[in-house]
């Protein structure tokens, strides 16, 4: 892969190419990652349980899950920092399972950035190349070339004037850029990012996110980003992997996961505010619906008497209505999020557009959800298409 | 607010009363502590100050209880410098203290790095043994060490003075293990991912971060070795091979009890160590108080 110098005018960030188009554009699939039956045990604890995963070359794959789900553990056998207990790791055509760490053609940004505190930014970024020049005289690296390459990535990240500083003299965002520069200077085909935004405050996070997306477009490597923040995951990923208890709960495009979650866990985890999931009287299935998909009825509950939730009849046959009491109302900017509770005690939330009339806490509320916006889950919590099966 | 003064008042009073009493109590505590610490400091400094003052007293005033001599004199110092082989002894002491300090640091850095970085299965056993070594009194090892040194023919040599004392490096190892553990593992992991071999991680990542701790441990070992008496006494029988602490004995044996000369020579041999301490005291306290990483 060659380092292309991209002019300052970049394509809009929102128009990130999909994994498919990028994969097709990249010459050989050297950034493909395949995990086969990867298992990692610590004593009796199963940290990774038979992980099978295909990460397309050139994708921005985000691995997301609640804390303790094995996100960080997954990066260990992938990066080579630790060996998997069982299973295979393939990068490109190579089975790298047994490769020594540092020989896998990948770069990594650590959660705490792991900058070397006593080295200047320049030496931090150039450290890997300096080692390479010592190990392999034939690599043709000398001090001048290393300086040149450091300058190149520094320019790419807009930090040429920081090169003489020590990490302690950098802001959080500058540290992150240093860590990114250090990870990409060897032009790896895979770049691993462990919670790269968690150390930044909320305002910086947005710009750092844009920075990562821009970099992703420039370098053409496969990016694997680990985060606990599903909103971050949903917005950045071309490919999304949800982990739970050391297993892959679902992987696919963010759209797939958002629109067709395979189980209640993924449904509740992906998307904010979280999907409402209820038991419905008269139905064996539990139904889920997004707070933004609910339609607040003007005349609370008048259309559908009896019960908190019921199937509509007649013209509204293809919908479900939920009735409850507003408990709290949160201002979201575009409108309000009403936090409600049914008479049965199930909590749900619904988005109210700014144009709607205000509902105060204590008010009775009825929400209609069109049937094509409903998700159905069986008693095991798995997605099912057999809708409205009577109990 | 205005309508509820009766409710607010007791609350306000309580709030005001407590901090005042608390502050007074805190001040009393501080005063007590300072009194105790001051008393201890006086107790510890008094003999040193008395020895120093006495070294300026002429022989006929040595036993006088007046702290300052009526006729202060430098004669003891002149004697110590001219008749006593102070330069030779200080040189020997310096070689011994430097040798032991450098040697212990070398061992301790390598051991600490290995224990933390490679995480050998025997790590717990090693640490327990090291901690155990701390509670074994040095005197119990004197005989085997002496026999060993004698059979190796190291009597009256610098090696004989230095090498056996390297064995007492448990404290240095344990201290440095703490410091190595405080270096975030992500730094060495980042270096590993960049292809660094263990020795490169040691040199480029660990050692620079360890520098303050190393200098603190170095100074501690240096000072305690400088003051070592028992081992040089056994190994270096000849005066010209021995160290300052042993040399001071001359004043007690060969010359009778020449307290003036003894104290003057003691003052002179202490000067290097006081200088080292003055330069390094900040580092020592730093290393012990915040053994963390900035």
Key descriptive features of the protein:
heterodimer; A: alpha+beta; Rossmann fold; OB fold (Dihydrolipoamide Acetyltransferase, E2P); 2 domains; 6-stranded antiparallel beta sheet; 19 strands; 24% helix; elongated; disordered N terminus; B: 294 residues; mainly alpha; MetI-like fold; 13 helices; 75% helix
Would you write up a description of this structure?
- The complex is a heterodimer of chains A (391) and B (294).
- Chain A has helices spanning 19-25, 71-79, 121-135, 143-156, 172-184, 202-219, 230-236, 254-259, 264-269; strands at 33-42, 45-55, 60-64, 86-91, 94-95, 106-109, 190-194, 222-227, 239-244, 247-252, 276-279, 286-289, 295-296, 309-311, 319-331, 335-342, 347-353, 364-370, 375-377.
- Chain A has 391 residues and is α+β, with helices and mostly antiparallel strands.
- Chain A folds into 2 domains: 13-265, P-loop containing nucleotide triphosphate hydrolases (Rossmann fold); 274-377, Nucleic acid-binding proteins (OB fold (Dihydrolipoamide Acetyltransferase, E2P)).
- A 6-stranded mixed beta sheet of chain A has the order 6-7-8-3-9-10, sandwiched between helices. In chain A, strands 13, 14, 15, 16, 17 and 18 form a 6-stranded antiparallel beta sheet that branches.
- In chain A, a hairpin with a 7-residue loop joins strand 14 (309-311) and strand 15.
- In chain A, helix 3 packs across helix 4 and helix 5 runs parallel beside helix 6.
- With 294 residues, chain B is mainly alpha-helical.
- Chain B has 2 domains: 5-54; 75-289, MetI-like fold (Orthogonal Bundle), CATH 1.10.3720.
- Chain B has 13 helices and no strands.
- Chain B is globular.
- Classes of the chains: A alpha+beta (391), B mainly alpha (294).
- At the A-B interface, strand 6 and helix 3 of A face helix 8 and helix 9 of B.
């Amino acid at each position: 892969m060659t380092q292309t110098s991209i002019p300052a005018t970049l394509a809009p960030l929102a128009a990130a190419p999909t994994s498919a188009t990028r994969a097709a554009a990249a010459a050989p699939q050297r950034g493909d990652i395949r995990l086969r039956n990867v298992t990692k045990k610590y004593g009796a604890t199963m940290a990774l349980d038979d992980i099978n995963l295909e990460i397309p070359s050139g994708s921005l794959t985000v691995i997301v899950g609640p804390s303790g789900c094995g996100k960080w553990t997954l990066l260990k056998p992938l990066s080579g920092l630790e060996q998997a207990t069982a299973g295979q790791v393939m990068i490109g055509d190579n089975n790298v399972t047994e490769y020594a760490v540092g020989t896998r053609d990948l770069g990594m940004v650590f959660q705490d950035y792991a900058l070397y505190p006593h080295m200047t930014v320049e030496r931090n970024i150039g450290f890997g190349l300096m080692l390479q020049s010592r190990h392999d005289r034939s690599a043709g690296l000398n001090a001048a070339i290393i300086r040149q390459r450091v300058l190149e990535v520094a320019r790419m990240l807009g930090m040429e004037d920081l090169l003489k500083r020590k990490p302690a003299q950098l802001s959080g965002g500058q540290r992150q850029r240093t860590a990114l520069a250090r990870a990409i200077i060897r032009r790896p085909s895979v770049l691993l990012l462990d919670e790269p935004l968690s150390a930044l405050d909320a305002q910086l996070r947005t710009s750092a996110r844009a920075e990562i997306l821009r970099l992703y477009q420039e370098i053409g490597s496969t990016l694997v980003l680990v985060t606990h923040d599903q909103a971050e995951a949903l917005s950045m990923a071309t490919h999304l992997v949800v982990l739970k208890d050391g297993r892959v709960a679902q992987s696919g495009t963010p759209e797939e996961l958002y629109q067709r979650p395979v189980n209640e866990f993924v449904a509740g985890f992906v998307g904010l505010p979280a999907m409402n999931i209820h038991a419905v009287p008269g139905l064996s299935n539990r139904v889920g619906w997004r707070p933004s998909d609910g339609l607040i009825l003007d005349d609370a509950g008048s259309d559908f008497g009896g019960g908190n939730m019921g199937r509509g009849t007649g013209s509204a046959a293809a919908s479900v209505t939920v009735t409850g009491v507003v408990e709290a109302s949160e201002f979201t900017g575009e409108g309000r999020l009403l936090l409600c509770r049914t008479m049965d005690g199930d909590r749900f939330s619904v988005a109210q557009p700014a144009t709607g009339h205000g509902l105060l806490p204590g008010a009775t509320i009825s929400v209609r959800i069109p049937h094509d916006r409903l998700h159905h889950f069986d008693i095991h919590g798995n997605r099912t298409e057999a809708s409205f099966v009577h109990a | 607010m205005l309508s509820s003064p009766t409710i607010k008042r007791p609350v306000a009073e309580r709030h005001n009363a407590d901090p005042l009493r608390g502050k007074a109590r805190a001040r009393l505590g501080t005063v007590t502590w300072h009194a105790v610490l001051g008393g201890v400091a006086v107790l510890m400094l008094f003999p040193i100050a008395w020895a120093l003052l006495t070294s300026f007293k002429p022989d006929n005033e040595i036993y006088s209880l007046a702290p300052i001599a009526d006729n202060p004199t430098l004669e003891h110092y002149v004697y110590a410098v001219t008749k006593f082989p102070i330069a030779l002894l200080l040189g020997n002491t310096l070689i011994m203290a430097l040798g032991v300090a450098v040697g212990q640091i070398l061992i301790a850095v390598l051991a600490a790095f290995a224990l933390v970085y490679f995480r050998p299965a025997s790590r717990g056993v090693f640490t327990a043994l090291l901690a155990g070594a701390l509670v074994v009194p040095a005197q119990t090892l004197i005989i085997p060490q002496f026999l060993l040194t004698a059979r190796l023919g190291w009597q009256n040599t610098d090696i004989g003075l230095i090498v056996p004392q390297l064995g007492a490096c448990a404290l240095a190892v344990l201290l440095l293990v703490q410091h190595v553990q405080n270096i975030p593992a992500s730094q060495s992991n980042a270096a590993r991912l960049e292809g660094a071999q263990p020795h490169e991680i040691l040199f480029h990542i660990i050692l620079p971060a360890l520098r303050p701790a190393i200098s603190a441990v170095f100074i501690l070992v240096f000072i305690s070795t400088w003051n070592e008496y028992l081992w040089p006494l056994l190994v270096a029988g000849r005066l010209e091979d021995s160290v300052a602490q042993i040399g001071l004995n001359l004043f007690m044996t060969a010359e009778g009890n020449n307290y003036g000369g003894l104290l003057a020579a003691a003052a002179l041999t202490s000067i290097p160590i006081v200088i080292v301490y003055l330069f390094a005291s900040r580092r020592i306290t730093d290393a012990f108080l915040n053994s963390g990483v900035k």
